[in-house]
Amino acid sequence: MLPKCTKSGKILSIRYSIAAHRKLGTALSIQPLARHLLGVAYYPEHWHESRWAEDAKLLREAGISVVRMMEFAWDKLEPAEGQFNFDWMDRALEIFQAAGIQAILCTPTPTPPAWLVAAHPDILRVDERTGLRDSFGSRRSVTCHAPAYLEASDRIVTAIADRWGKHPNVIGWQIDNEFGCHNSTQDISDHARRAFQAWCKAKYGTLEALNAAWGTQFWSATYTDWAQIPVPAPTTAAHNPSLLLDFRRFSSQSWVAFQRRQIEILRPRIGAERFITHNFMLKFFDLDYYALAAALDFVGYDNYLHGMSGPMEAAFNLDLMRGMKAGRPFWIMEQQPGSVNWTPYNPPVPPGQVRAWTHQAIAHGAEAVLYFRDRAVNIGQEQYHAGLLKHDGTPDRGWHEAKAVSEDLAKYPLLKRGKAPVAILFDYEDLWTLRLDPHNAAFSYYEVALDLYRPLWEKHIPVDILPRNADLSGYAAVFVPSPALINEAHLANWRAYVEQGGKLVVTFRAFFKTPSNTWTDQPMPGGGLAELLGVTVDEFLSIPPVPSVGWRAPDTPSADWDDDRGAHVSDVAAKTSGIGFTEGFGMAPKLRYRLWAEVLKPTTAEVLMRYTDGYYKDAPAATMNKVGQGAAFYIGCWSEPLIPRSIWQALDLARFEADTKDLPRGQTLELITLHDAEGKPVQVRINHSKRTVTFVEQAE
């Protein structure tokens, strides 16, 4: 066949079996899928019943084949204690079944009804930032430690599972909705305080062990009775960092236990053939999502792109979700269908954008995409949020783009994501540790991970994002961002990976804290990591983002302490191409760094980068240590880019870069490799730019 020219708006192309595509030689990790699904969150309680059939007809015309319902309908399902009203949902299920649309039902526990709160006001959580109890009238305002709330939750979940658990048109269940949303993960009520004290006793066994682990002798905080242990309520200065980290663990585990409580009610009533999931949130770190994912059949994810900086960050969060269940496909339970109502300015969504976002999610491993919501609502707190239908019930742009996606998916074979050649290990407890005491106010564990991901995404290199204890076999390179907490079991896994030929890259702020969040008394990095890396940290430096380092404001016109900080490193081990002014003279690339720097002291490692200014000029800034058949790298400063050329070359990452010679320049394009049922490579190209792009496509 002759080459053909393809034009489109946001979806640039899906091209099948390109001869020039490089095979990575990795086994496919995703289970075979029946089909990709498109769906929507639907709220029959928001509309007159006479409208339901028309909505079902319009949604089916757009290619919608599944609706999610009921997560905020507790008051309509149980208008008074123990009195259930289920007939309306029976009729809604009948209407959608008749239209050929299946249903996912949700447990309605994020919004307890007014009668329950009035009878038991202690079910409302107490905010750790203010010490005040939440008021009724919103969502996620409850504590999962209040007996009355747990009893009422059990009652409603049992009742709806008995009613619809094996309904022929119900394919699965969602537990609750967005645990932790609106800063609601932590609670310092009396219920939570007593539960935390019991948790501490179960973990440490004795007060002597707890006092030793937390270092309570500091500021005279030794505990002599379990009842003395506080929750982190507002106080004059900071709480003990060990208490704070354990309280985060306790809070996360409490919601995991609450979810498991509902799963134990649902599973025997719905059977093994129906799934159970929960909708995780973007850029949300108050819960350990790996632990929350463990008991679910697959992960759900709410993909709101206007909550992120752009397509790269969106891709990172999608890949993070894909790694929650060892590569098991996830579902988008809420996909932004247009403008939202909760960002500072809520910008418009141009034509083609929703279509591109949907295809990006599918290309990163989503098995289904459900838009939020069916129709822009006329009542309540989200009236400005777009839906597939407008406020008047007529199709909005999102409806047309969902229909276009449905037509797109019908044209191509079912595709699935394979194992990537590169992995990033992401850890919630490391994130909590560095968030609780960042030392530099601008430091962010998440941003470190994102800066590792950024150059890989820009070169279209597939990445798996995994927990710290993941099986690393088969990965050509593994990146570990700021692993603050010492874990000798994780280190043993990393060492085995390197000895067997793997290449491990660890960044600054590594293994300097014990699991209880006290500082190690070993040379950093502690716990044996220094031996693997062949280097120790002689000094660490917080690099302020502004010239001022004292208490005064940056614009105050007076002299400040001269901290003699540096700002640049030389990538001395990088191989230059001879192109460019400095490279033509054989000069090493020079990089800026920011926020954090560590002066390194190699023991067995080779120096890759050196500082070029500051009082630590010429000191090592990055190293490589050969161990067994592999190598371990350490990046000691937050350089720009974070993966310097010398390490990129040593990892031989160029072999995984996509061939972009036929792509137009100056546009933000994303190339993603999927596979069809026969294992043949399929390259999905998404145009994230404003302009339509034209390119020549090869075809067989």
TrEMBL record:
GO biological process: carbohydrate metabolic process
Pfam family name, one: Glyco_hydro_42M
InterPro entries associated with the record: Beta_galactosidase_Trimer (IPR013738), Class_I_gatase-like (IPR029062), GH (IPR017853), Glyco_hydro_42 (IPR003476), Glyco_hydro_42_N (IPR013529)
Annotated active site: 178 (proton donor), 334 (nucleophile)
E.C. no: 3.2.1.23
Superkingdom of origin: Bacteria
SUPFAM superfamilies the record matches: (Trans)glycosidases, Class I glutamine amidotransferase-like
Binding site for substrate: 139, 177, 342
Keyword Zinc carried by entry: yes
GO cellular component: a single term: beta-galactosidase complex
Reaction(s) this enzyme catalyzes, per UniProt: Hydrolysis of terminal non-reducing beta-D-galactose residues in beta-D-galactosides
Residue intervals of the Beta-galactosidase trimerisation domain: 420-643
Any one GO molecular function term: metal ion binding
Keyword field contains Metal-binding: yes
Family in the record: Belongs to the glycosyl hydrolase 42 family.
Protein name: Beta-galactosidase
Organism whose genome encodes this protein: Candidatus Thermofonsia Clade 1 bacterium
